[in-house]
Write a structure and sequence with these properties.
CATH superfamily of the largest domain: P-loop containing nucleotide triphosphate hydrolases
Number of strands: 16
Radius of gyration: 30 Å
Strand order of the largest sheet: 4-7-10-1-11
Structural class: alpha/beta
Shape: elongated
Helix content: 40-55%
Number of helices: 22
CATH class of the largest domain: Alpha Beta
Largest sheet: 5 strands, parallel
Number of domains: 2
């Protein structure tokens, strides 16, 4: 497609200029009518956040996404470029993108006046029209708005009040586009003040010199709740100028969380080893995050990012892959013990309260895994008060028997050791059914770990080995050691 190269050609083409918010509004209306997915890859917000976002765009609002970490806020903002035209014309030779029909800068106006219909134009892709900045305490007004260039003023013999001596910041350079500012409360209050006129009066001040600059920008922000950050707040006048405040949230169901984790995690590995992940184990990984979001040891004001589930799944897959490489196996299934081998994906993703710090991140992570196992166990197996179901298993342990497993065992050794426990394989096969597939060892370990989490079987950890044994004998044995 041939694009007009001059203002005259642009006029002859019938092109009509419009504001960026009007442009976004018209495009989102068209996409809704065509039944298109407005925010592809954003899961769990279909009936909450996305309708609010659409309303904000339809209202031509500047808006802020408010929510805890790991709730896809930045990703949503980057998706907004889909509502911009694929290409727009701007004046060639100006420091900021200028509308050929209504230039905002002195340089743009001069070019149009001097060259008329011969004024050269260039075409901007919509990806070029989105700029993003992370708010940090060291940001200056010069970074965002601009500053006087004294060298240019001296060279051109211009007064400091002349627009020609200004070096524009990132906000003016986003003219005719979308500017996103992440973590707004981290921006110092004196810098936030500099955004007030940009959003409302469309004029800016640089070094005390007022400058009327009718910018055409959609301003969008993200922020964590102020009671979490404790690093600052949004000043009231700026908050008042942000038209819509949209609240984000974590996945409301396990299924939504699983879809997000599956979408974002690196699961397609580049080896010839087949890594099989039963559905109930994916549930288990997601339950770890759910447990963390309600744990008394975790700072709930901080939140628990969806990145924890993603990292945990990737680490479990890597442990499965490593084990298969060591033993020369072509297929690998996960184990409950793989979760303990992947603790590094949990400990770095949660902020602990004082009680959690006393326990230590490792113990807190293991408790979260235990709570998750308990939930998945209850979903698939009978309640533990039905002792007749588990009678033969408990009797076998009561006779002094124990079983020791490790994430480092080969698949054959892992399965054969668990099969020593009577009824274990049969019960796992009954209640996990087809999900169990060939990995009967995983089902048996889940059953044993579930009984342990309900205080029916004892567990002792020695290095990377885990030994299950009778609860009463362990209790009495510990009393003897204490004495």
């Amino acid at each position: 497609m041939e694009f007009p190269a001059t203002l005259g050609e642009l006029k002859a083409s019938g092109y009509k200029s419009r504001g960026v918010k009007e442009e976004m509004r018209e495009n989102i209306i068209r996409m809704i009518r065509e039944g298109k997915d407005l925010f592809p890859g954003i899961i769990g917000y279909e009936k909450s956040v996305i309708p609010d976002l659409v309303n904000a765009v339809l209202s031509k609002h500047d808006f802020i996404l408010l929510g805890l970490r790991g709730q896809a806020k930045s990703r949503i903002l980057r998706e907004l470029v889909r509502f911009l035209d694929e290409d727009i014309p701007v004046i060639e030779g100006t420091e900021i993108p200028d509308d050929p029909f209504a230039p905002a800068t002195k340089a743009g106006k001069q070019l149009v006046n001097e060259k008329g219909d011969a004024c050269p134009i260039r075409w901007m892709r919509r990806e070029e029209r989105y700029n993003e900045k992370l708010a940090t305490p060291d940001i200056t007004i010069a970074d965002l708005i601009g500053d006087i260039d004294p060298i240019k003023a001296a060279r051109e013999k211009l007064d400091f009040s002349d627009e020609e001596v200004i070096h524009f910041g990132i906000v003016p350079r986003t003219n005719r586009g979308i500017f996103a500012l992440n973590e707004l409360p981290d921006l110092p209050a004196r810098i936030q003040v500099g955004l007030l006129n940009v959003m409302e009066e469309k004029d800016i001040q640089i070094r005390g010199f007022p400058l009327r600059l009718p910018l055409d920008i959609c301003m969008v922000y993200t922020a964590n709740p102020e009671d979490y950050t404790n690093r600052g707040s949004i000043i009231t006048p700026l908050k008042d100028r942000i038209d819509s405040q949209i609240i984000t949230h974590y996945p409301k169901t396990i299924e939504e969380g699983m879809k997000i984790t599956e979408q974002e995690a690196w699961t397609e590995r580049d080896t010839d080893i087949e890594l099989k992940m039963p559905k109930f184990f994916r549930e288990l990984i997601e339950e770890v995050a759910v447990s963390a979001r309600s744990s008394e040891f975790v700072d709930q004001k901080s939140g628990v990012s969806a990145r924890m589930s993603i990292s945990l799944l990737e680490n479990v897959l890597s442990n499965m892959e490593r084990r298969a490489l060591i033993h020369g196996e072509n297929t690998s299934y996960p184990r409950i013990s793989d979760l303990h081998a992947a603790l590094t994906a949990i400990t770095g993703k949660v902020e602990l309260v004082y009680e959690g710090e006393k326990e230590g991140p490792g113990l807190v992570a293991k408790k979260l895994i235990g709570d998750a196992v308990k939930q998945v166990f209850r979903k698939h197996f009978p309640e533990t008060d039905q002792e007749s179901v588990y009678k033969k298993i408990l009797e076998w342990f009561a006779m002094g028997n124990n079983v020791t497993i490790s994430p480092e065992l080969s698949s054959r050794d892992y399965s054969s050791r668990l099969k020593e426990v009577p009824q274990l394989k049969r019960l796992a096969g009954i209640y996990l059914e087809e999900e169990l597939a060939e990995s009967d060892g995983l089902g048996m370990e889940l059953l044993l770990e579930g009984l342990h989490q309900h205080s029916m079987v004892s567990k002792r950890e020695l290095g990377d080995e885990i030994s299950y044994r009778d609860m009463l004998k362990t209790m009495f044995g510990n009393i003897g050691v204490d004495e």
